[in-house]
Amino acid sequence: MFASKQAVLVTAISTLLVLSYLFNWAFPWITLEGPSTLVHPHFYNNNSILHLTPTQGNLLGPFSSLGTGSGIAPGYSNQQNVKNSNTGYSRVVVIPCISKDNISWVGEFIPDQNVTFYTADDQHSIRHPPRNKGNEVMVYLTYIIDHYHELPDVIVFMHAHRHTWHNSDLLGFDAVEMIKRLRNSRVVRLGYVNMRCAWVPGCPEWLHPHTQEELVGKQEQAWLARSWHELFPSENLPLVLSQPCCAQFAVSRERVLWIPIERFIFYRDWLIETPYSNYVSGRIWEFIWQYVFTGHETHCPVEHICYCDGFGVCFGGEIQYQRFIELRTQKSHHELELRDLQQKQMDASEGFKVAKPNATLHEIEMGREVYLQDRISALVQEIEDRRQEALERGQYSNDRVKDAD
After folding, report:
1. 401-to-283, 308, 341, 393 alpha-carbon distances in Å
2. In terms of pTM, does the model score above 0.85?
3. CB 3.0 to 4.6 Å from 255: which of 2, 170, 191, 237, for a disulfide?
């Protein structure tokens, strides 16, 4: 009887050893061990002793956890390394460009900034990516890979054009102002900051990958659905992916280092090898940067807090900010009505109006035109006054704190 029990025990132990060997052979990136400060925090699960080594970076999605709880990263807030002022941080601005881009604005208007250029279409330039593909994505990933072990506190990824429609309208669509006013403390505290605060386009719900039809203006929705499991093999396809457009953002060193370098290399290899064109592969990434760096499918910060805490544009709270937005909406509606009225008058004067002009109606329309022009002028002035007040208010830390309430 005793010998029989011994045999069963030996068989059980042998089976466990064989299973352990097979497990380690099949899943070499997973190690079972007790909590250790050497384990990368990106992959630490508070409710499990299961840890993932950096070599698994190519295989699992951002902030994955194989245990029962959620990963650390989505709730990340790095208060420990936040300084009292916006100075004292090391920072680099990474700008992808091509040979024909005019990037003189950088040296002229922000000569004090540490800026690194990558020329995507010139393999003989000092810095260039391995392939001119994927628009800015290739350069962003290449910078991280090249500098992974010597990153500054804050890395800002920006496009080469100084003025463009998707830059911050409250800062004159000006990349110079966005870079100068970006608060390093917010980046270090949150880990990831989109350089655009305005939700449209991109928030609150932008891409619905499960709806795989190609929509005009959202073609990346179908493309992303087809590519998701190539990039994140173990992650379910999200129902929604959202963040303010358009692939300009800042990350902290700590947030980057939470992700193994092997993962960034894997992403870049995918970009090089995918049959998708430069345009398509770049568009696919526009709404997954937030997933890579935060673990969240949707990243839509409250607009007035983003403007105030991120760029020092403080309206005094949500109510005041919404009033500012209402004024701009009124202005847009009046401008649209004025254009329609002027077009109607132009058509009539050129003989497109068959009916005989009605003098009384004409006088009414002329009066409305004058009213709209006066109202638009008044709104322009009020909007600018409020914007300037917000810029001034953003200089003081107490006002920035109030805006977050």
Report:
1. 36, 9, 45, 11
2. no
3. 191
